[in-house]
Design brief:
Layout: E1 2-6, E2 9-11, E3 16-18, E4 21-25, H1 35-46, E5 52-56, H2 62-65, E6 66-69, H3 72-82, E7 89-94, H4 118-125, H5 145-148, H6 153-157, H7 174-187
Parallel strand pairs: 1-7
Antiparallel strand pairs: 1-4, 2-3, 5-6, 5-7
InterPro entries: PB1-like_dom_pln (IPR058594)
Pfam family, one: PB1-like
Organism: Lactuca virosa
C-alpha cells in the first residue's frame, strides 16, 4: 500500500510536512514502473508538477528516514528497500523544489545555509552595533504650521531648531491652539491666521 502526501510544504523547525493532502493507493504496482513513470503517474493524479519526490523509510524518525528519489537508480533502491513490506510506504512530494535533504547533517542537526560556512554564521550572530548619540534628527514639522503644533517638548529637544527662531520658551497649550485652527479651517474663515 502506497500513501501519497502532496500539496503540502516541508517546514524546517520543527521538521514536518504540513498543509497537504493524503491519498492511499492499493491497486497500483509501483515496482513495475521506472522513476519517470512513477513521477508522471503522480503528476497526472495531482494535476501539479513534482519538483522532488521523497519516500519515508519506516522505523526511523521522519527527519532521518526521508530519502530523495531523483533517478532510476534511487528508485530501484527504494523498491528493494521499501516495496513489498507489509506496512504503508509514504511518498512526499515537494512542489517547490526546496531540497530538504540538505537541511540536516548526519547527526540530525540543522546544517548550514547553502553556500555559507559555520564561521561566517557565528560572526553574524555576534554582531555588535554602535550608535552615534551625537546625531541630531531634523524636525520635519518645523515649517508646517499644523504639524509643528503637535510636537511635544521632549521631541523638540531631539530636533534641530533654526538659530534665527526667537523662541522665548513660551509654548502654547496644544488644545487651545488646535481648536481655533481647526474651526477656522472647516468654516473657511481666517485660513491665513497661522
Amino acid at each position: 500500500m502506497v500513501e501519497l502526501n502532496y500539496q503540502g510544504v516541508f517546514t524546517r523547525n520543527p521538521f514536518s510536512y504540513t498543509g497537504g493532502m493524503r491519498t492511499t493507493f492499493n491497486d497500483v504496482e509501483f515496482s513495475s514502473m521506472t522513476y519517470s513513470e512513477c513521477v508522471t503517474f503522480f503528476e497526472r493524479f495531482m494535476h501539479e508538477d513534482c519538483k522532488k519526490l521523497y519516500y519515508y523509510e519506516l522505523g526511523i524518525s521522519q527527519m532521518e528516514g526521508l530519502n530523495p528519489i531523483s533517478d532510476d537508480v534511487k528508485y530501484v533502491a527504494f523498491i528493494s528497500d521499501a516495496y513489498g513490506t507489509d506496512g504503508v510506504i509514504s511518498f512526499y512530494v515537494d512542489h517547490i523544489g526546496v531540497g530538504v535533504d540538505g537541511w540536516f547533517d548526519d547527526d540530525g542537526r540543522e546544517s548550514c545555509i547553502d553556500g555559507e560556512n559555520e564561521d561566517n554564521i557565528d560572526e553574524l550572530r555576534n554582531v555588535e552595533l554602535e550608535f552615534n548619540e551625537d546625531i541630531m534628527h531634523m524636525n520635519r514639522t518645523l515649517n508646517d504650521l499644523f504639524l509643528s503644533k503637535l510636537c511635544v517638548d521632549e521631541e523638540m529637544d531631539n530636533n534641530i531648531i533654526d538659530d534665527d527662531d526667537d523662541d522665548d520658551g513660551e509654548h502654547l497649550n496644544l488644545v487651545s491652539t488646535l481648536i481655533p485652527y481647526l474651526m477656522s479651517y472647516y468654516t473657511g474663515k481666517n485660513k491665513n491666521q497661522f
